[in-house]
Known about the structure:
The chain is of the alpha/beta class and 139 residues long. It has a single domain (2-138), classed as 3-Layer(bba) Sandwich (Glucose Oxidase, domain 1), CATH 3.50.30. It is 18% helix and 29% strand. It is built from three helices and eight strands. The protein has helices at residues 67-77, 92-101, 115-118, and strands at 2-7, 9-12, 15-22, 56-59, 84-87, 105-107, 124-128, 133-138. The protein is globular. Residues 29-106 form the Phosphomevalonate dehydratase small subunit-like domain.
Amino acid sequence: MEKIILKGRGVMPGKVEGTAMVCPDSIEGYGGFDPKTGVIVEHNHLHKGKSLKDTIFVVPGSRGSNGWSCYFGAARAAAAGPKALIFNRIDSSSGVAIAISKVPTVVDFPEGQNPCEIIKTGDYVAVDGDTGIVEITRK
């Protein structure tokens, strides 16, 4: 098994482990997924029909409207959200979604450490929102 360590900036504390779902083109903030189930419903999305529930959700940043906070907040309330969030970069929409989701989150990776390119869907990932360490185990 190959292990890879990335170091970003932890912005929401906590430590979790789980299976990665990588969305290199992100997801629409408003209507990209069903907040009651976590199932991605966005037309032509790479993971359409799959649930982001209990995943380590990896995206470059938010896309679309400020619906990110509403949808990720509703997913948290329905216990249908991801276990952790990893963003290449933080922006205002993703920042509010992070605060409302209250799951361990790491953002702002240095050049050459693009999590959307390094982490693969299905990798086992440990996220430390306190230290900003992301440990990837590739099988």
